[in-house]
Each structure stands twice: as C-alpha cells, then as structure tokens.
Request: fold
Amino acid sequence: MTEKTKSFPDRVWDFFCSLKLTIILLLLLALTSIIGTLIQQNAPAADYIREYGQANYELFVKLQFIDMYHSTWFIGILALFSINLICCSIKNFPRAWKFYRAPMLVPGEGILKGSANQAEYKSKDSKQQVAERLSGLLRKEIGKTTLSEKEGKLYLFAQKGIYSRFGAYITHVSILIVMAGAIVGNIWGFKAYVNIVEGSEVNQVLSRNGTLPIDLGFTVRCDDFDVSYYPNSNRPKDYNSDLVVLENGQEMVRKRIEVNDPLTYKGITFYQSSYGPAGSAFFKVRVTDNASGETLEVNARQGQHVQLPNGYSFAVTNFTENDRNFGPAMQMHVNTPDGKHGAPFVVWQNFPQFDVKRGGVFSFALLGADQPQFTGLQVAKDPGVNIVWLGCFLMVFGSLSAFFFSHKRIWVCLEDEGSKTRIRVAGNAHRNQSGFSLAFDELQQKIEASIKNESRKEG
Amino acid sequence: MDSGLLFNLTTVAYFASMVLFFAYIATKNKTVALVATLTAFAGFLIQTGALGLRWYESYQILGEDGRAPLTNLYESVVFFAWSILLIYLLIDWKYKQRTIGAFVMPIALFSMLWAQMSLHSTIDPLVPALQSNWLTYHVITCFLGYAGFAVAFGVSIMYLLKIGKEEKHKGDGPIGGILGMFPSTRILDDLNYKAIMIGFPLLTLGIITGAAWANYAWGTYWSWDPKETWSLIVWFIYAAFIHARFTRGWVGRRAAWLSVFGFAATLFCYLGVNLVLSGLHSYGSA
Ligand code: HEM
Reply:
C-alpha cells in the first residue's frame, strides 16, 4: 500500500505509531522542561514582577510558566507521548508474540539471499554429516537448535534471547504504570504540613498548595523535640520528635522520628522536616550578690525583667543552644536601681564561675534553659506510590532485558549440489545490527573452520 | 600516608596514561598502547585504594559518623573520575579499541585535576538530610551512568571526526594518518550505543533511587526541583538516542550528536544546576 491510497484514519494511526514522533516528543519534553528550571516555579507573584517586570509576569501567566509542569500544554505533550507509546505497543506487540509462538524454522529465499549477514560454503560431506556438525556448533554458540526438512533440503534453526523481544514492551508499559501511579497519588493522596508545639496535639494538617485544613481522622501529639549536634561543632546531627498517635484518647503508636526516618499510620506518613522556637524561653538562673556572697535562684522568661535585691533587675534577651562551641549561652543585662540599662553580656551554662570575673554587683550562672520548640512535619498520603515503585521495577527489569539481550536467529540451509553439499548460512538480530554482524563474522569463521577441519580429517 | 597523597598519585597516573595514549596514536606502536592501558589500570587501582582509605579516614575523624566518600563536590568529582575509569576499562577489556583511551582519559584527568587543585577535601559530618543509605545507592548509580555517557561522548567525538574525513576522502584505500588509527565508523557507532546502553539503565536506577530517597525523607518522590528535572532531561535525550537507532535518518551522525548533547546535558545536570541554578541538592553549597 502506498501513502496515497491510505485512508485518513490509517494515516492518523500511522502518525501516532511513528517512532519519529517519539523522538520529536522526547526532545520536545527535554527542551521544554528546561523552562521550569530557569524560571522559579510556584513563587509569589511579587517575586516574578520584581525580577522580570509586570509585562513579562503577565506573559508567564498566559504561557503557564509559573507552574509549567502542571500546565495544560506540558500535560498535553505527556498525553500525546502516552498515546504514542500505547499505539506503538499495540501495533508491534503481535509481531513479537508471533516470534515467540511460531518461530520461522524454514527460512524463505529472501532471508537466505537478502540478509545482511550471510555466508555460503561447499563441503564434500553429506547434508546429514554437515547438519550434525553444525547443529553441535550452533548449540554451543547460540542455543537450542531445531533441524527440519523440506523439499529435500535440510534446515537448521537456532535462536537466542527471544525474551528480549518483550523487554521493550515491559519498559513501555512500565512508563504507563508510573504515570498511572502518579495520577492515583494526585487524586487520592495529599501533601501537607503541620507544626506541633512540644506537648500539644493536632488532628488536622494544612495542605501544601492550598489553605484548607485536612482532617487526619486521628490525633498526633508531640511529646518532645530535640536537636542533637556533632561533638565540638554547631552542625546539627539530627532532629528528633517523639510522636504519639491517639485514637479516641487511646495511644495507638509511639515513635521517635528523625530526618530520614518517618512515622506512618493508616497510610499517612509524618516526616521530620523543620523546627523552631514556640513562645519565649525559660531560664533557671543563679544570682550571686558579689558583696555578701548570698545566692538566690530565679526563673526568668526571655525578655522579661526580673527584680533583684536593692532595686536592681535583670533580663535575658537572647539565647543560643551553642555559642561558638562553648555550649548553651544566654545574653543578658542588668538594670540599675535608677533604671539605667547596663551593657549586655554573655553567660555560658558550661562555665558557671566565669561571670564572677566580670566584676559587677551581681554575678550570674545559667543552670538550665528551656526553649519550647515546635516540630515541623511534612505530612503525605500517597496511595499511588506502590504503583510507581512497581513501574520503576519493571522499567529497570525491562530495559536491562531489552539492552543486554537481543533476539538472534541463525538459519542454515543444506542442499545437494552434484556430489557436494551447498551450505548457506544467514542470521539476523532484532536490534543492534552492527554488534550482531561483528558476532556473525566470528561465527562465520567458526563455521568455516568446522567445515574445513572435519572435511580434511575425514578426507 | 593519607588518601590525598594517593589521589595525587592517581592524577599522575592518569596524566601519564593520557600522554601514552596520544603517543600511541602518533607512533602506532602497540606496546605503547598496552603500557598506556596498564598505566590507566594502575591509576584505577590506586584510586580504588584511595577511596577505601578516605572511607576509613572518615571513621577516624568522625568516629561512628563515618561514611562512604560520596557526599560533597570534591568526593563526587573524584568518584566521577573513578567511574569513568571503571566503565572505560570494562569496554577496553571487551572491545580492545585502544585509541579510545586518548578521548576518555582526558575527561578523567580533568576531573582529578579539578578536584585536587581547587575543591575542598575536608571530611565534614553530614547534615541530617544526607544521612541515609539511599544516598550511597543514588550516587553510585548516577555516577556510573554519567561515566557511561562520558565514554560514549569520547567515542562520539571520534566518530564525528572520522566520518567527516571519510566523507571527504576520495578513492578506495583506507584513510591514513591519525584518523586511520581510529576504529571504523561502524565500530565507533556500535561502541557509542554500547556505552549508552550501560549508562541509560544506570541513570534510570539513579533517578529511581533518588526518588525513593526523596519519598522516604520528605514524602514526595518527585517535586520537579531543578536537579531532578535536569536528570529527567538527560534521560529524555538518551531515550531519544535509543529510539534513533530504529529510525532511518537518525542513525550515524545525528545519533553521535545526540550523544554529545546528552553528555553536555549530563554535565549541566551534575555541575551546572548547582553552580548556575539553585536547588535542594547539597553540592551547591560545597
Ligand atoms: C521515555 C520513554 C521510553 C523509554 C524509556 C523507552 C525505552 C525503550 C527501550 C529500553 C527499548 C529497547 C531498546 C532496544 O531494544 O535497544 C525501546 C524500544 C522501542 N521503543 Fe521505546 N521507550 C520509550 C518511549 C517510546 C515511545 C513513546 C514509543 C512509541 C512509539 C516507543 C517505541 C519503541 C519501539 C518501536 C521500540 C523497538 C521495539 C522493538 O524492539 O520491537 N518507545 N524503548
């Protein structure tokens, strides 16, 4: 059938099946994906206007560049790509299946004469002798070999790697499975976050892209939050939250989560992602009257003035868990009785005697600090994720079997020619032609050697 | 002895090997080629030892927080060079096309020079987000994939040089000179494909392990951040390359160009995204 006589639906079908379309779509996806890496995605409008100007911002909105990976046109390319993939598989699969079900044991003249890889020899030995020898060789070099006879000629057929014919289909189906998993996750799952102050509980979380709270259907309490540091450094080593899941007031699960080790309950997973101070910190401070040596212990809240004897007062203004490797430290100042604001100074928890050297009216030691924290959790529910992993597994499995194995077929036709035997060998592989023809050259030499050797020995 | 010294030795070996490969092309002396290959192999062994030693050193410095040497820009560049050597030596072992060394060793050498001369090689403890075994799997698979593409790139350059000359060449005799030393365009084309065949499934695994890790750490296996997106761009380009083999009009020259663009995109994904764009990945701040 020539192009012109094809009906319109046939031409549409051919268009969707075409590999040229695949290449163009793949390169188009590659090119367009760049846009979203150059223009920041999903930022507030003001950011774009500041960076690119009002007119460009409006253009971006029109072209859907602000959220381009979810834009109609990008999804459109992906949809076209999927259709391409589906059509192509539907078109080609029956052929692969036929190779499997009904291997061509007897090649036509077309294959014997027209193959890119072919060879011809003569032997003094009989067809049967040659067949026996070559089938031994082919079994060793290729694999299972079938002998058949037709119209007085003997045929050998050997093949290897038939399963690799399906590798490409498995890979293609796997891509559709991954996309299906992503769609399932988008429809039935959610991405959210929540901040829980130590000691408190929540039963709702906030969607990451909207503002509507999502009901969890159970309660999560954070009993404690901790940051640990590497020794002698202020590099955080880990953030941990002690989480408890409650249903109807009953404790269901308890887990200390950390970054890279989340908690999952009823398909909803809680990931440690951030933290921060919640409300002002409390400090346990020991004050020593340097003149009398009298001490007293007081609790101070950050930013609050605490009265001292003789009209003095002090306030803690700042706190850090780790000050230049010296450990926890607070910044504070003392106010004189006439209300004068003293110079700020620092007191380290690990060096309680240190402040005496400052030589003020009072010296201070930090006995303990408690900064209530909130733990920041990412919350996700994704019922499609296992579908995605299944697709990924098939993708790796399929592409490996497609790449590292090819379906190779060798035919040998043996016929009488006077007193001699005419031997014709042809072979093909379903992919990687150039690689196969190198292998075929090698095989050819072995066949030649085998024919010559044996003839010489016997002759 | 410390790993830095061994890495310097590795660099010297790669340099020597590269010079020897050039000498081979100039002299056509097979012994030189063998020495060049053995030098490359020796460098690879030293580097393997150096990576092991650095791993051990991390336990000496950080105690129980020691880790595989795959976590900052310096370590990744060094590992990139190691991966290139691994893939190259495998391909050399299988196909014995010695001239390719002259086009692959420079990439490994430049990586080592860059790492040794201008990147910070201190062993720092990991921030919480990077403390995961997935990091190791992710880095190893990605970099072996990149290395496959690097070898394919070297071969593609040879292909493009040779095919240009062949097309201008008149008469039947084989072309002489340096290009005459190159494998035939048929073999180069095949090797390009072979190297990408190694690289592509590894990159696929690299993207998947990255996604698995992101899912485990943050609950999203894909968030379209620039690094992820660029790895997908690279993946698309090589997927196009793979399908180009089946389509008339896209084989040969165009396929070689796709391989060159693919490697350019790979380098951008690896370095450009962090140095030029911003993202979540850690090398940016290194
Ligand atoms: C990114 C998406 C894709 C990937 C990862 C992919 C992967 C593969 C792989 C690994 C092979 C085997 C290659 C080989 O045998 O050397 C292959 C072959 C093939 N692909 Fe794709 N593919 C993709 C998209 C497509 C699409 C959209 C089409 C639609 C037309 C398509 C059509 C084909 C065809 C016709 C073959 C040859 C099949 C055969 O050997 O009979 N591919 N693909």
